[in-house]
């Protein structure tokens, strides 16, 4: 289908109305598919040396979770280095980055038409738009003058929307966060914080809000949920992002060396101290200190940490002089510190000092829709590590993964895919490697890929099923208690939180997770 001047002008006239809308990129792609005869259209944003899908049509959903290294894909490389649009010959032998990813089609793409162009702003690469059609010669009849107009219009649209989005963020957040988001070096960072579920969107919103402050943050979540990623994201969005983020694993610190590791020591401070050594607080001065597994810190060390948090002063071992530091502390734990405080295993004053802004990370099984995106992200990383041309996951495997409970969360998902990819690639010799159910079952080592393991004895319910029932019972109990208190307090959340001995913000987050609103609670 030839591109007419009339249709092109109508398309350009529609673009301004899309600016600033939540689905503007996808809406633009949908209108493009009506303007040009294409089987696939994709808009990919550049972050560092990779391209990340922002909107697409005609490609499998897991493509949205992938990251395409420009240097690994000759077609992308040719597009980004061209000064105008690129039309590839139908018989072009360069591998297509979307081989095996076309909706409703197995295997690599046959001979097809392909073109694309780069989006630049002030000579800086912003992203790439690509078009593919299974009809040979689909783009040959397009007037190149009209195509240049289309490229100019789309470039202006994408740049304008990015700038509008940045302005909205700057208005919403503090001056510190505005400065952090506008730093050009942040655009080169590869964002691995993958997830589009409602739970992750809410978490990202909270991260953006607290990142603009210097308050301490306590990240709570099960093992493997990504607590360290959250800490990195807070630091990246903060006004401290030009300074270091120093990581400390409290569980790995020998008890007799904790004080030296955190606060440093001078020569001769103890046996073996042969020279001065700066502690982690000194190294992180001006930046952020991430204390992972804070619940493992011994009580004696907790008291010394509390003093630093209160005064921002450290005293290296063996030194009389007190040193001033400016450090933001982010802590993380998979323990319930409130219960540790009640049991006398964690200092209450340190807990409250750290718990200024708590962030709860949801389990992977609670993140509806994120498993397939994370699968795409990890599969693309594995494809590069294993040196494969293309790696994909069979649909029945994705369906089984959606049903599985993932007690090890995102870390378990990554390791699961790694084992399956290694097996699939070792037993098959083809252009496209597909992970099938057989690859997963052999590597699961007796661990079911669903929440209900039918191989368990009928007299002993599976561990996963038991955990599911227990969690549902606990949720139902909490839901009923909160609704009862809210009803008695006539929907007043502040009074309800006081009666439940909870912070109002914590009660609101808990109620949100349980699906409670004031209207439902008092109806």
Protein topology:
Blueprint: H1 5-18, H2 24-35, E1 40-47, E2 50-57, E3 68-69, H3 74-80, E4 86-88, E5 113-121, E6 124-133, H4 144-172, H5 175-182, H6 198-211, E7 217-220, H7 227-236, E8 245-249, H8 258-263, E9 264-265, E10 277-278, H9 280-283, E11 288-292, H10 299-311, E12 313-314, E13 323-324, E14 328-333, H11 337-342, H12 348-354, E15 357-360, H13 370-386, E16 390-393, H14 395-403, H15 409-427, E17 432-435, H16 437-443, H17 463-488, H18 493-499, H19 504-513, H20 518-522
Parallel strand pairs: 7-14, 7-15, 8-11, 11-14, 16-17
Antiparallel strand pairs: 1-2, 1-6, 2-3, 4-5, 5-6, 9-10, 12-13
Helix pairs in contact: 1-2, 1-4, 4-5, 6-7, 13-15, 17-18
How would you describe this structure to a colleague?
- The protein is α/β, with parallel strands linked by helices.
- The protein contains 20 helices and 17 strands.
- Strands 3-2-1-6-5-4 form a six-stranded antiparallel beta sheet, sandwiched between helices. Strands 8-11-14-7-15 form a five-stranded parallel beta sheet. A two-stranded antiparallel sheet has the order 9-10.
- The longest helix has 29 residues, at 144-172.
- The protein starts with a helix and ends with a helix.
- The model is unreliable at 172-191, 442-468 and 518-523 (pLDDT under 50).
């Amino acid at each position: 289908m030839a591109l007419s001047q009339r249709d092109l002008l109508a398309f350009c006239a529609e673009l301004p109305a899309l600016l600033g809308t939540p689905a503007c990129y996808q809406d633009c792609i949908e209108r493009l598919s009506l303007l040009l005869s294409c089987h696939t259209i994709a808009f990919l944003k550049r972050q560092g040396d990779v391209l990340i899908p922002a909107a697409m049509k005609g490609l499998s959903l897991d493509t949205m979770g992938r990251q395409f290294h420009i240097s690994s894909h000759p077609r992308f490389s040719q597009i980004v280095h061209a000064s105008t649009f690129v039309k590839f010959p139908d018989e072009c032998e360069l591998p297509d980055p979307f081989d095996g990813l076309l909706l409703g089609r197995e295997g690599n793409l046959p001979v097809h038409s392909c073109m694309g162009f780069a989006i630049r702003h002030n000579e800086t690469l912003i992203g790439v738009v690509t078009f593919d059609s299974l009809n040979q010669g689909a783009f040959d009849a397009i007037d190149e003058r009209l195509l240049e107009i289309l490229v100019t219009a789309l470039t202006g649209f994408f740049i304008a929307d990015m700038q509008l989005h940045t302005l909205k963020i700057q208005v919403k957040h503090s001056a510190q966060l505005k400065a952090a988001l506008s730093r050009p070096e942040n655009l080169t960072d590869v964002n691995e914080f993958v997830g589009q579920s409602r739970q992750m969107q809410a978490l990202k919103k909270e991260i953006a809000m607290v990142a603009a402050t210097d308050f301490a943050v306590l990240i709570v979540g099960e093992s493997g949920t990504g607590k360290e990623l959250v800490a990195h994201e807070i630091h990246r969005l903060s006004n401290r992002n030009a300074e270091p983020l120093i990581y400390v694993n409290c569980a790995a610190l020998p008890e007799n060396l904790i004080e030296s590791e955190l606060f440093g020591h001078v020569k001769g401070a103890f046996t073996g101290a042969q020279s001065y050594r700066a502690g982690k607080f000194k190294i992180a001065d001006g930046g952020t200190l991430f204390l992972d597994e804070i619940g493992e810190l011994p009580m004696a060390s907790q008291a010394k940490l509390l003093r630093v948090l209160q005064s921002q002063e450290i005293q290296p071992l063996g030194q009389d002089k007190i040193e001033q530091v400016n450090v933001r502390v982010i802590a993380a734990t998979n323990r319930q510190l409130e219960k540790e405080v009640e049991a006398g295993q964690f200092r209450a004053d340190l807990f409250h000092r750290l718990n200024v802004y708590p962030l709860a990370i949801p389990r992977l099984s609670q993140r509806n829709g994120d498993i397939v995106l994370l699968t795409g992200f990890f599969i693309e990383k594995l494809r590069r590590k294993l040196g494969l041309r293309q790696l994909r996951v069979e649909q029945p495997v994705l369906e089984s993964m959606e049903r599985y409970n993932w007690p090890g969360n995102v870390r378990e998902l990554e390791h699961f895919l790694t084992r399956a990819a290694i097996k699939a690639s070792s037993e098959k010799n083809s252009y496209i490697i597909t992970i099938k159910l057989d690859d997963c079952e052999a590597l699961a080592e007796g661990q079911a890929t669903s929440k209900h393991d039918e191989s368990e004895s009928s007299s002993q319910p599976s561990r996963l099923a038991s955990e599911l029932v227990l969690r549902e019972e606990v949720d139902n109990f909490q839901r009923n208690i909160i609704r009862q208190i809210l009803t008695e307090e006539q929907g007043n959340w502040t009074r309800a939180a006081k009666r439940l001995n909870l912070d109002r913000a914590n009660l609101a987050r808990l109620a949100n997770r349980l699906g409670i609103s004031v209207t439902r609670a008092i109806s």
